[in-house]
Amino acid sequence: MPSAAPFHFTLEGRSGAARAGHFSTPHGRIRTPAFMPVGTHGAVKALTPEQVRATGTEILLSNTYHLALRPGEGLVEKLGGLHAFMRWERPILTDSGGFQVFSLPNKEISDRGVKFKNEVNGQAMDLTPERSIEIQNALAADIIMAFDECTPFPASKKQVQTGVRRTLEWLDRCITAHRHGERQALFGIVQGGVDLDLRTSCAQSVTAFDLPGYAIGGVSVGEGHELLCKVTAHTAPLLPARKPRYLMGVGMPEDIVAAIGYGIDMFDCVIPTRYARSASVFTMRGRIRLTNRRYRRDAYPIDPSCDCMACAGGFTRAYLHHLFAANEVLSAILCSAHNLHFYQRLVREAREAILVDSFAAWRQEFLEGYGS
Known about the structure:
Elements: E1 8-15, E2 18-25, E3 28-32, E4 34-37, H1 49-54, E5 60-63, H2 64-69, H3 73-78, H4 82-86, E6 92-95, H5 98-102, E7 108-109, E8 114-117, E9 124-127, H6 129-139, E10 143-145, H7 157-177, E11 185-190, H8 196-206, E12 213-216, H9 224-235, E13 245-247, H10 253-261, E14 266-269, H11 271-277, E15 280-283, E16 286-289, H12 317-325, H13 330-355, H14 359-370
Parallel strand pairs: 4-14, 5-6, 6-10, 10-11, 11-12, 12-13, 13-14
Antiparallel strand pairs: 1-2, 2-3, 7-8, 8-9, 15-16
Helix pairs in contact: 6-7, 7-8, 10-13, 10-14, 11-13, 12-13, 13-14
């Protein structure tokens, strides 16, 4: 399947294995390394689109499974597609829905797809490769993901082998079902658990299809930092250098920094906004929890080196501590904006270091400060 004209990845610089570039889409360019905030239901929790843009975000992720359940992809399509529906004019990626379905209890997995109960109304439903692509075609995101089987951790050798086989068979069916290759880039996904031989064979088979981009799935599912790094360091070089590489669901700062060093270009995770709603915020000196009593009288901003709407706006740790104690929604707004700004700052600084071939020095400086 040849890459469609609107989608083109350009490498601008390297520093070791780390890469800086940009990926062109019909809704604009994405500078890489890139972090994608998650708007599961078509919205980033607690923030308006304008507030998300102000963090430096260039691309969002939305969820196929949840949007199909509510409000339904047909309504989104009728109202102009996901960009118009959620008032986001920049690029959007939709995942396949597979991860959410495989996380459900009492699902039935077969070579055909997955049967499960609709968590909204209890009706029996099927999600197949064809159905996932049908939904994503209707949502009209710039980047869509192939339907794959995400095996849990730990898993038996047989489970992982079955997952790889289905992932490859389902990718072929996704490609056949995809109707909008000229305006939607379909990415294939490499599975294989922590088995490096299976990762190799899966990567070879997935990249045999000439797709606009490729992803590494099945990590950040409980295997821990060391195994995540081992799998990513092994798999990333197996993916074509001239296409974007996406590490799915990875969101701790130390994991992102490590993966950039292995040659990963794109990331997504719910961590920045989920942690923000429970008072956990990221700073260049590490993560802090604002509900801790030590911040009750703290007159400093979350991070004095940050220029997000919370820090530059003069909101103190003491004020945010009070907002959480009072259960005020402004606490989630300000901390979500800060955390997303921190993540965009992280990948922007990594990109700048790559472009001047000083990524290793930047990484060491960041990790020493962040872990202090």
